[in-house]
Amino acid sequence: MTATYDPTAQFDIDVSEEIYRSGPDGDWPVRLYRSQGNGPFPVLLDRHGGAWSNGSYLNNEDVDRALAASGILVAAIEFRQAPEHVYPAQVADVNYGTRWLKARAAELGGDPATLGALGTSSGGHSIMLSVLKPSDPRYAAETLAADPSADATVRYAINGWPVLDSHARYLYARDAGVERLMKSFENYFGDEDTMREGNPQLVLERGEQTALPPALILQGTKDDNVPLAISERFVATYKSLGGSIERVLFSDMPHAFTREPGPETDRAIQLMKSFIAEQLKDR
Questions:
Q1: Global pTM?
Q2: pLDDT tens per residue, range 161-179
Q3: What are phi and psi of 44, to 5 degrees?
Q4: Distance of alpha carbon 159 from alpha carbon 132, whole angstroms
């Protein structure tokens, strides 16, 4: 069976955890938000933000719960963080997590053919690098034993206040004298050459992308963490390459505004639901 999605539907949800990846660097959990009803349900991978060095898979819990309650199987992964683990570790974890979720989706009540990705802040950076280059040998280096043939392609990508140009954001932090942000970049990337290499914007400009799924960007106009010019430039470049992408701005909202309840958070969730429904309507 294939999944259908009605963004106005309401389901009870079950929340559980399991390990999606184990290795010499530890066991890495995934938090599953499962709609309770007759599936299969669409599937969504969530990767939280935190400047590559903090935060947890609970960062987007309110959004994850709301999406799951509308009939989506949501999987929020934890991953390796800086400074202990440097680029491209987090992109590789997203890539592996995407393939893991595809392989497990049917067993969990989901339809792997519907899998989309959600990333916020630095999570948007990792999500988009894997989305644009799902077969990059560094990102896909770890074989998924359960299904070696699974790939990391997605049907769509949703990004909240994303870091889509890691080098431009580093320069912004440096010019503003924000030592905390500068340090997070240096801890994960090491140097500016690596910030330019592992860079969704420059991946597009260099023509390295192998996939351009439909994308949605949400960002507040009072975001003092990621300049609006970064997402504006990304949208223009994505469209110039033939990709379908939309950016929705939220007046007077700060960085990571959906972590607080309110009308604009409700609006953001509704936009996500509508976008997902649009991507799956012709299935």
A1: 0.97
A2: 999 999 999 999 999 999 9
A3: -140, 130
A4: 13
